[in-house]
Request: fold
Amino acid sequence: MSSSVVEARHTELPMDGLEEKLRGLSVARRSSPEEPTYLLDVALQPTGLLAVSCSNFTVHLHNKDTLHLLGEYRGHGGPLCGVVFSHTSPDFLYSGSADGTVRGWDVRRPGTEAAQMFKSDPAHSYCSLDLSCSDTLLCAGTEQVDDEDSFLVFWDIRKPGRLLGVYSESHSDDVTQVRFHPRDKDRLASSSTDGLVNVFDLSRGTEEEALLATCNSDSSAGSVCWSGADYTHLLCLSHDEGLHLWDLGQLDTDEPLTLFSTSDARSLTPLADGGGVDYLVGGWWLEEAQKLLVVGGKNSGDLHLMECDDGGLRLLRSLEGGHSSTVRCFLWDAAEEALVTGGEDAQLLLWKPGGEELAAGKRESMKSESALRLKSRPHKKHGYQRGKKAE
Reply:
């Protein structure tokens, strides 16, 4: 789809309820970091906490309304790959790391040692993590082992000392993200630098039987996001800013899975200055609005909120004056109709409708030489083949 077509969609469509909400967003709160560290991932506990994984291998706990730092967890010996709260026991938080451990923390006791520990083969270095909606299964994706294979590792959280199983045939390079379906405890999607996005039904016996679909991103796949009215759609963002939206509801039909696909989404959403975004942060399905939000940014720190559907991308709102460098993570707090963002400037920001920042103005970047060295290593490209129903 050309940029001119997308621009036409932007100018012709009337403003809807979602745009009204997003239009009012401004910075309401800003964290005050004590040391320069990248904020890599953020998770929400609806009862009041935010968990943030940092590039200095720590996990920070913040009050979700004030962003005050309530405590931190230390213990991981390598880069963190994600944080996720338990759905049914929200006082438990899980973090994964390249040190080969997944740790469970009791958020009622900040600063304490991990309450649970999950491991697999000593050669495994984890680069993705998620917890099933039923709170029974933990899954971690590994980096490539011995220049040959990568693995999906599973545990039952009720049995921390015991490995449940491993998938070893579906990816050949770093598993960049694993995402359980929000409603189906047995449905899992995974993305990898091998260019493949796989969808599994974990209730089936063998790995081969469980693999429902393989979608080809034609590039190093960086992240996936479940979306759509019944979460039958899957969004994939690649490391070179490609974007693919697939309809998995078509798996048992002869219809194509692809709803929209572009090898470079940066120029598809013209900004006020006529340019495009520099990078894509990720996607988020907005349940109430029934729309897929994609967040992109400029290296200067400005953020751009876009709607994504089978017609492509459409700019909804630009957020300026918040971050001073690249944004690495975000989440949407539906209950508060608020956006939380974190980035390489060590800043955690809360954007709310009509928000009036109480802290000082925009902070300068807190990048340090040591933090810069912790940036993700370049991902390799591979030949992209293999698949059951490939796109």
